[in-house]
Design brief:
Length: 164
């Protein structure tokens, strides 16, 4: 018995998180077996910095639509691994600006063939299903942009109270 499957809609966030952790774990195993000291969760920040060169932590959080604390934690890991460096902004001493280190750039080059395989296999996996999960996720994200789940639940609870 799988309680998460049984609970269906009520456990949606857990099911998505479980799927995400499973995919990240498998990809991280591939990096490890390829002798690359790299974790799947670092990919987005490094790729963003590769494109943007220099960014504040708040800009990274906003760009990736992830929480500021989550980005701070990932930035600390990346600094410890010498994949990025941080310095105080010369214009605003409260901001930490981050950029790739030479080691970070080399690591991104080293994982390029792995990324190519990941992209190819993800595409096959998605195409082999009965629906395009990327399209569905985009639709669900757009619906939450229009009205958050918090607001949806609050409205539903208010309606239930008025009907009682």
């Amino acid at each position: 018995m799988d309680l998460v499957h049984e609970l269906a809609e009520i456990a949606l966030a857990t099911r998505l998180k479980r799927l995400s952790e499973r995919l990240s774990s498998d990809v991280s195993k591939i990096y490890k077996e390829s002798d690359v000291d790299f974790e799947a969760r670092w990919f987005l920040i490094l790729t963003l910095l590769q494109k943007e060169k220099l960014m504040a932590i708040t800009e990274i959080a906003d760009s990736l639509q992830l929480s500021h604390p989550a980005i701070i934690q990932l930035v600390q890991e990346l600094i410890q691994k010498n994949l990025i460096k941080a310095a105080l902004d010369s214009k605003d001493g409260r901001k930490r600006m981050v950029s790739l280190t030479p080691n970070g750039k080399r690591t991104l080059e080293k994982i390029e063939p792995i990324l190519s395989s990941i992209k190819e296999e993800n595409k096959k996996w998605i195409e082999g299903s009965s629906a395009n999960i990327l399209k569905i996720l985009a639709e669900l994200e757009q619906a939450l942009n229009e009205q958050s789940m918090y607001n949806r639940i609050k409205l539903n609870m208010l309606l239930q109270k008025t009907q009682a």
